[in-house]
Amino acid sequence: MLPLLSASLRSTSALAQARDPLPSWNEGATKSSIVNFVTRGTSQGGPDFVPVDQRIATFDNDGTLWIEQPMYVQLAFALDRVKVMAPMHPEWKTKQPFAAVLDGDMKELAASGEKALVEIIAVTHAGMTTAEFEKITSEWLATARDHRFKRPYTELVYQPMLELLAYLRANGFKTFIVSGGGIEFMRPWTERIYGVQPDQVVGSSIKTRFEMKDGAPTLFRLPEVNFVDDKTGKPIGINEHIGRRPIVAFGNSDGDLEMLQWTTLGASGPRLGVIVHHTDAVREYAYDRDSHFGRLNVALDAAAVNKWTIVNMKNDWKRIFAFD
Amino acid sequence: MLPLLSASLRSTSALAQARDPLPSWNEGATKSSIVNFVTRGTSQGGPDFVPVDQRIATFDNDGTLWIEQPMYVQLAFALDRVKVMAPMHPEWKTKQPFAAVLDGDMKELAASGEKALVEIIAVTHAGMTTAEFEKITSEWLATARDHRFKRPYTELVYQPMLELLAYLRANGFKTFIVSGGGIEFMRPWTERIYGVQPDQVVGSSIKTRFEMKDGAPTLFRLPEVNFVDDKTGKPIGINEHIGRRPIVAFGNSDGDLEMLQWTTLGASGPRLGVIVHHTDAVREYAYDRDSHFGRLNVALDAAAVNKWTIVNMKNDWKRIFAFD
Q1: Per-residue model confidence as pLDDT tens digits over A35-90
Q2: What is the DSSP string of B25-89?
Q3: Which of B51, B86, B177, B273 is deepest in the core (most CB within 10 A)?
Q4: Closest approach of A274 to chain B, Cα-based (Å)
């Protein structure tokens, strides 16, 4: 080979590498399935071309975009709030589930079951205006630290997924978050961290009441569930908020099964379903069928049947977090 | 003046006119209030500059973007559906409110009250999948004609408002529809007619149920109200779907009062509230305080107090419809 040609090939290769929109993804079948899907969908004149207005991508949040172990971040927020609010509620010292929270007795708390969790969410998430709740969550996220990584939770987002969000948007996709988490817990920071604007966030919610107060309009948060954006709630929430079926969806747990079904099954045109499988106990966590948070059991079996792509975090991701 | 300079000024003026983004609006205080608001909000470095991500504009639909007389278009759809479905329901011949609909007895129907209307909406809007409902509404809109104008309803949209939607988008605004009408009744056509994508439509809805049917996922429409996007429901719907307060809102009736309050009151930065006042009985309709559909009473008084802009359709609009 002529030296000049060889040098030219080397620089072309370097250029291609520099331009790789998914640098934190290892080369292999997983990355290829995503890149091939996007390439086919955006190839004008090709058989799988998808018009821009139909390029809808949905992402679960907990366990798909950021960590959900050892507990959901929003649950950590709720437990911290109980501690902050405790001086105003002396009766909590002897009243479950609050006493368990104040004592740090996670076993007792887990034994209290779902009703206890709903009670904790109600007292910590309601009884204030939407503006006040936004201030409380923003301040908490700015100061709270994960115990294992000693980092703000907003740094515990998966770098390969950030690249994926940007890659899809660069290819004309509208990216939506569709999470079981609280819609108003996510919105204050999703634009800054994920580039996803508030109107493209779908989540669980409690009811609100509109009130004029001293001439100013407010929305007051009520201790009453409005919508649970999990399992069958995900396609319902997608339909309610987006009004179109996604053509690609990313999830990591059984709570995402119906979203992946709604996205990929019984529809024409190219479709892609992706499951993020937590397989890396060293760099993050390894869990699936038996996990308390983010259980991946039925959806893992469904992935094999429906040919959904499975991301093996340990093998497919060069790094997990930006700071790795 | 030198001839050359004069000619140059004339052509500049002609150019300015050719570039007027609101050609169907007469010059005057109303048009100026809108143009000034947009100019101030988009003047980088100016005191009222609004970052692009906060440029949220909301529009009511019935009576603000298209006609709502002699009855809401969606009600005309529901009545037509009762007629189409009647052969499968022989009992309707003697059962109110269906008998009144089949006899065309609008007085009897009006006397039946709101409960009757809810019953009609339930039988005509539920009991099918979302895909089936989209097909039914799309086919109806393609064939139904307004009795007075002999036109498809999708041609009975206000040309000045179409220009306004485009003008705002050209200035970086995200335009949303926030309507008391059914969210799924609007979505099949809002992008084509208004340039508003399905995820930017907020409206009333009924509950849906997710089901896998022969391996294909479906959402089945249930005869149960999910959300009423009217009056205090509008700020609640805006918060739920958009997650940010609009800085400009357009309405035409008391159902829009709270949306205009939520948009304009108790918030910093430039805000604009606009009420479309139906004052043109010749080209369209004239109605306000006593109208059965689209009553404008409390919001008309509030407009004066809060300095909301009032569009006088007769005086402010050169033409109402594109075909005028």
Answers
A1: 999 999 999 999 999 999 999 999 999 999 999 999 999 999 999 999 999 999 99
A2: BPSSHHHHHHHHHHHHHT-TTSTT---GGG-EEEE--BTTTB---SS-HHHHHHHHHHHHHGGG-
A3: B273
A4: 17
Nearest CA-CA distance, residue B272 and chain A, Å: 15
How many residue pairs bridge chain A and chain B with CB atoms within 8 Å of each other?
92
Residues B11-39 pLDDT 10s? 555 555 558 999 999 999 999 999 999 99
User: A205–B232: do the CB atoms touch at under 8 Å?
Assistant: no
- CA A199-A230-B208 angle, to 5 degrees, is 80
Tokens of A101: 């929270």
Residues A95 and A211 in one domain: no
Q: Two tokens at A53?
A: 């207005």
Backbone angles phi, psi at B53, to 5 degrees: -70, -10
Q: What is the mean pLDDT of chain B?
A: 94
Closest residue of chain B to A202, computed from CA coordinates: B241
Q: Which of A126, A143, A160 is the last residue of a domain?
A: A143
Of A143, A169, A202, the position where a domain reaches its end is: A143
Residue with tokens 């893992």: A300
Closest CA to A253 of A204, A302, A205, A218: A302
Residue A321 lies in a domain: no
Contact state of B216 with A241 under an 8 Å Cβ cutoff: no
Query: Strand A201-213 to strand A216-227: parallel, antiparallel, or no bridges (unpaired)?
Result: antiparallel
Tell me: do A269 and A164 sit in the same domain.
yes
What is the average pLDDT across B242-250? 98
Contact B205 A265 (CB under 8 A): no
Write out chain B residues lying below 8 Å of A265, CB-based: 212, 215-217
| B117-148 pLDDT per residue, tens | 889 999 999 999 999 999 999 999 999 999 99
Domains of chain A: total: 2
Chain A interface includes B198 (CB < 8 A): yes
Whole-complex ipTM? 0.93
A32 and A104, same domain (yes or no)? no
